[in-house]
Amino acid sequence: MKSGARLGLILLLTPLLLWLVLLILIPHVDMFLVSLRERVGVGEYQVSLANYLTFFQEPLYLWTFLRTAVMSIMATLITLLIAFPVSYFIAKIARGRSRSALFLLCLVPFWVSELVRTFGWMILLRETGIISNLLQWAGLVSGPVEMLYNDAAIMVGLVYTSMLFMVVPLVTTLESLPDEVIEAGYDLGGTNTSVMREIVIPHAAPGIVSGSIVVFMLSLGNYLTPTMLGGKDSLWFTELIYSQFIVRFNWELGAAFGFMLLLLSSLIVWGMLRLTGQTLERTMG
Amino acid sequence: MIPSIPQPRALRAAYVAYVAAFFIFLALPLVVVAAFAFNDSQFPSLPWEGFTWGWFIGSERPMIGAFHERGILRAIGTSAFVAVGVSLLAVAVGLSNAFLFNRYRFRGQGILYIFMLLPLVVPGIVLGISILVFSSRVANGLWDMAQWDVVALRPGLTLVILGQFSFIATIATLVIAARLQKFDRSLEEAAMNLGAGRLVAVRTVTLPYLTPALIGAFVVAFLMSFENFNTTLMLVGSDAPLTIAMFDRLKEGSTPLLNAVSLLLMLGSSLLALVMIAFQRK
Q1: Which of A104, A125, A222, B145 has the fewest CB neighbours in a 10 Å radius?
Q2: φ, ψ of residue B232 in degrees (nearest 5)
Q3: Domains of chain B
Q4: Structural domains counted in chain A
Q5: What is each CA distance from A52 to A35, A39, A144, B75, in whole angstroms?
Q6: How many A×B Cβ pairs under 8 Å?
């Protein structure tokens, strides 16, 4: 029996380890090693920090990196601000059938590919698009307005794309807050704001954290939305990685960029977990 | 704010209006994409030139519909092939992982569990390039050592499947593990008391119980694979899955053909989602 259990353990461990070691661990280590490589001749390499130096010395690279980080944080905050009242409505105000219907409606855009969603925003925002035509028809503007190809358009696209990943964890945590607790808050003399601040938001903290982590990650790593909705001046860091890898074939620099992106996202995720005393198992698992 | 505590009417009305505006915001891009699939024009934009089915069934230039466009049909086939591959792999590994974390206690389990969650917090494009770098190194190594060219390790569908699997496996594991957690193990013990062996008990009692989760995991994996863009972009070879093919066309400028394909995608994925919900109900 004992050896049977042992055999079972080994059989079940094998696929897990093959997956994690061959597809996650070794590739990332290898990417890091490649990023530490400097090409000194044809097929000749030496270990150096040259790629990271390039990253820190070239203003375009560093600037794009910081811009991507700041805009992803902004997108996360905006998504949270928009999603919270809606999630609260679904979890605490709506009842019965309408609650599940509203919740399901929130999921619908997720079932459609990101490409289609972005395409939708292009049709809405472009010069010949719906909103431009609507504004002209209403007489608010005299000629066509181009609302595509700028940072605001990217922001709209990012917030739209990540909305679901904020709403679902928020609704889940808010649903677990008993109505009686909120009523007790009012009975004890609380106002709308104080009940919100001292009861609802602390209770929803795990949902806020896990939603924010996912939204931040998705924004930071997004390629499609910035490429399609952004203009010439709104470069996204993933576009730099893509161009180093596929267009310029400079894998060493591209790997260094990839590692910087990984470092940034890990730091922010870790920081957010530490700050709120959550663990990865609790927020993701 | 809660229904049992009275609030000013104006506040309630403003709140409902806000939620309504939110759902309009959610629906708007999808509705426009769907609507312009029927515009009898070369561009998916105003003015409205009249209703047509041409972008679905048209077979002559300039209006070749989605059902007659070779490139799009092939890309759908490629995407479906990749998605089935990824889902089968992810469900198989997910099932194994669920049993491992639910039924066994071993040293390093906690760390392994956290490690298993990590693919979810790695940007998709980084997953893509790391697998690209590593597989190229292996392929080059094999070529240098034995003049052995392993096509599967060059950018192409095998790598796309592996790349998508690398993070979808986590999601499949979580879906299946969540259901296994709720399973009452005494049912399995009862089967064993009645003379079933361990494997027979798992096959006849536990697996049927897990079926809704297995189907759910399969559908979610299928949709995530079908939609995936970032990881695929870095690993794709000459056979482009649908998202990549549409992206390439969209960069060159769009015709309502793309709207028609998008509408078909929406219908397809809603259908799958409904199938899944129906199975979860059971």
Answers
A1: B145
A2: -60, -40
A3: 76-240+274-281 (1.10.3720.10)
A4: 1
A5: 8, 14, 44, 38
A6: 241
Beta strand B59-60 pairing with B63-64? antiparallel
CATH of the domain at A172: 1.10.3720.10
Which residues of chain A have a CB within 8 Å of the CB of B233?
223, 242
Domain range enclosing A104:
63-284
Helix residue ranges per DSSP H, A58-200: 59-88, 96-107, 114-125, 130-137, 151-175, 179-187, 192-195
| A28 found inside a domain | no
From first to last of its 282 residues, what are the pLDDT tens digits of chain B?
677 677 788 888 888 999 999 999 988 888 888 888 787 777 766 667 667 776 666 666 666 766 767 788 888 999 999 999 999 999 999 999 999 998 888 888 889 998 998 898 888 899 999 999 999 999 888 888 888 877 778 888 999 999 999 999 999 999 999 888 888 888 888 888 888 788 888 888 888 888 888 988 998 899 889 888 889 998 988 888 998 988 888 887 777 788 888 888 888 888 887 887 777 665
In a domain, A47, yes or no: no
Report the predicted TM-score, pTM, of the whole model to 2 decimal places: 0.87
**How many angstroms separate the CA of residue B174 from the nearest CA in chain A?**
7
Q: What's the half-sphere exposure (Cβ side, CA atoms, 13 Å) at B79?
A: 24
Rg of chain A (C-alpha set): 24
Rounded CA separation B241/B232 (Å)? 8
Cβ(A159)–Cβ(A82) below 8 Å: yes
In a domain, A11, yes or no: no
The tally of CA atoms less than 13 A away on the side-chain side of residue B268 is 15
CA distances to A32, A34, A253, B129 from A49, in Å: 11, 11, 10, 19
Residue pair A254/A241 in contact by the 8 Å Cβ criterion: yes
| Residue A16 within any structural domain of the chain | no
- For residue B160, the distance in angstroms to the closest alpha carbon of chain A comes to 12
The percent of residues above 90 in pLDDT, for chain B, comes to 23
Task: Locate A193 and state its tokens.
Answer: 């704001």
How far away is chain B from the Cα of A129, in angstroms, using its nearest Cα? 6
Could you tell me which chain A residue has the CA closest to the CA of B95? A12
Query: Rounded to 5, what percent of chain B is helix, strand, coil?
Result: 75, 0, 20
B23 contacts A102? CB cut-off 8 A: yes
Measure Cα distances from B280 to A81, B80, B104, B216 in Å: 32, 23, 27, 7
Here the ipTM equals 0.86
